[in-house]
Write a structure and sequence with these properties.
It contains 17 helices and no strands. By secondary structure, it is mainly alpha-helical. The longest helix has 19 residues.
């Protein structure tokens, strides 16, 4: 069995890419890895062939060597007060119609998750082909296998794990999902600790309630580090090449709902949670999403929510630059 998102020989390729993204010069480390017979990062969660003990040991040594290098922070601070000091947070605003808006947020979270499950990992070209072939483009309802031509399904096969529970003809409720699990975990954390929780509280509830096999990438690495008795924020940095991936921003819905109309309050909770598994722009993305969720309970447009989310991100960070570029694109999202 090959364990995904965990094997040192798989992590090193991701770490080389991540270190370059952070501005590190890793050419010499990369040469040593390839000279010893190492491979680039696998396209999926794990490479298929075992490696020698010697190569795995080298991968661990190189991961630790790269971890020991100083982070090139620049305009991307790590502390919450420093982050807010380099942003321009929008003021808190009172929410209205709160019960209805929170109910809508929950429903939207669940529906959006189920809608996307059968086409998870399929590129946009394939999603469009499936939807057009079944009269569902632009997408306005659940995906279905009914009437889908064989040549389309053959080229763009459904997500195998989700097909039995997430197509129009077989949906019977909301199936278990790792992303929704984290929404529920956020609610449980708020119920246990209130809105003043810290990163240790978040880590503790992971250990109490989250099965390691149902989390992936940065979260799986952070859980491994917790089980080896490391604590946040080391859990986010030790042998974790996924530290700026998307996982943390998927976890923070409930913090926005619990801080309705208060983007800074929502961002603070997201910062505490995200530090368990992420750094830098991975943390900023969680703060962005939490602030946007908080804004959604008082604002009337998605554009306004996005602007409020952007307001808690350091203005000169890579994430802020990307968000502004997306905002300024002309035309539709396609």
């Amino acid at each position: 069995m090959r364990v995904t998102w965990s094997q040192p020989e798989d992590l090193i390729g991701h770490e080389l890419r991540q270190a370059r993204e952070e501005g590190q010069d890793v050419d010499e480390v990369e040469r040593r890895w390839f000279a010893a017979g190492g491979a680039p990062a696998p396209g999926r969660g794990a490479s298929q062939e075992p490696v020698s003990d010697e190569l795995r040991t080298l991968a661990l040594e190189l991961l630790d060597e790269l971890d020991a290098r100083p982070r090139l922070l620049g305009e991307e601070p790590a502390g919450f007060e420093e982050i807010i000091g380099q942003s321009e947070p929008a003021p808190a605003r009172g929410a209205h119609d709160l019960p209805q808006r929170i109910a809508g947020a929950w429903l939207g979270r669940a529906v959006g998750c189920v809608l996307g499950k059968p086409v998870e990992s399929i590129p946009r070209e394939g999603i469009r082909a499936i939807a057009q072939a079944t009269g569902n483009w632009p997408v306005a309802g659940w995906f279905t296998a009914a009437g889908l031509p064989d040549h389309v399904s053959g080229r763009w096969p459904w997500n195998r794990a989700s097909r039995p529970t997430s197509l129009a003809e077989n949906i019977a409720g909301i199936p278990e999902d790792d992303d929704l699990n984290f929404t529920m975990l956020g609610v449980a954390l708020l119920e246990r600790c209130g809105s003043s929780f810290d990163s240790l509280d978040a880590a503790k509830i992971w250990l109490d309630l989250m099965p390691p096999g149902r989390i992936f990438t940065a979260e799986r690495v952070a859980m491994r580090n917790l089980l080896e008795a490391y604590l946040p924020p080391v859990t986010a940095t030790r042998r974790n090449p996924f530290r700026e991936w998307i996982g943390a921003r998927l976890r923070v819905d409930a913090y926005g709902w619990a801080a309705s109309g208060d983007p800074v309050g929502a961002a603070r909770m997201a910062w505490e949670d995200a530090r368990v598994s992420h750094t830098g722009n991975g943390v900023y993305a969680a703060m962005f999403m939490a602030a946007a969720h908080a804004a959604s309970l008082s604002e009337s447009s998605s554009a306004a929510c996005a602007e409020i989310g952007l307001s808690v991100v350091p203005a000169r960070s890579r994430l802020a630059e990307a968000l502004r570029a997306a905002r300024d694109l002309e035309g539709t999202w396609e």
